[in-house]
Amino acid sequence: MNGFFHIPSAIQNSYGSLIVLHLEEALLPVLAGLLLALPIGLLCVHYDWLYAPVLWTSTVLYAIPSIAFFVVLIDYTGLSRLTVMIPLCLYSLVVLVPAVVDGVRSVPEETNAAASAMGIGLVRRYFQVQLPIAVPAIMAGLRVAVASSISLVSVGALIGNQGAFGNLLTYAQLYRLPRLAVTSVVTTAVLAIVIDALLVLLRRVLTPWQPPSGRAAAGRSGATSGDSPARTAEGAS
Questions:
Q1: Which one, of 98, 103, 13, 4, lies nearest residue 55 by Cα?
Q2: For position 237, what pLDDT does the model report?
């Protein structure tokens, strides 16, 4: 088990520092993508004609291989983490923009009408009324974007060892140490699961008004229906 956490000195990073590095390279681009998606989503909701070209553009960007992005960016950002993080930010838009737009569009018209009647302007209504209601849809998109980003960080190993745990895959082949590949794959998967669980918890904190999950609701419904015959019989007696 100790071998799992042992990182060769040639990598110049400890296991803990690789975790920090991997999360930075994965989460900061998604955060930047979310900050871009919020105003873009507002424009797409306000101007319906804009949504199709924005979605098409983000889809085309997502289809571009990361290596092609690296080739273009290296001349400007060099063999740095920024070269890895810029494509990840652009990739996240293909998920986050539709999530924001769909979430805002799901806000009941009565709510929008009430906000307008109270004199709340477009931008203020967007941030104070629509986005809080759209949190479940946005968080769903955010979970997908984060999981994808945590996985794609490993591609950075192709340029100057900027792939965090992805670097271990290269060294596993170089030094013929399969355990490094196992460490890379398992740790990346665990990080994705842990961050996803934290996002679920954050969604529950931000949306206390949300109904319980389907399983919990079914359980409560079953308990209620199970009690009702007894109560009926008791009342009849």
A1: 98
A2: 40
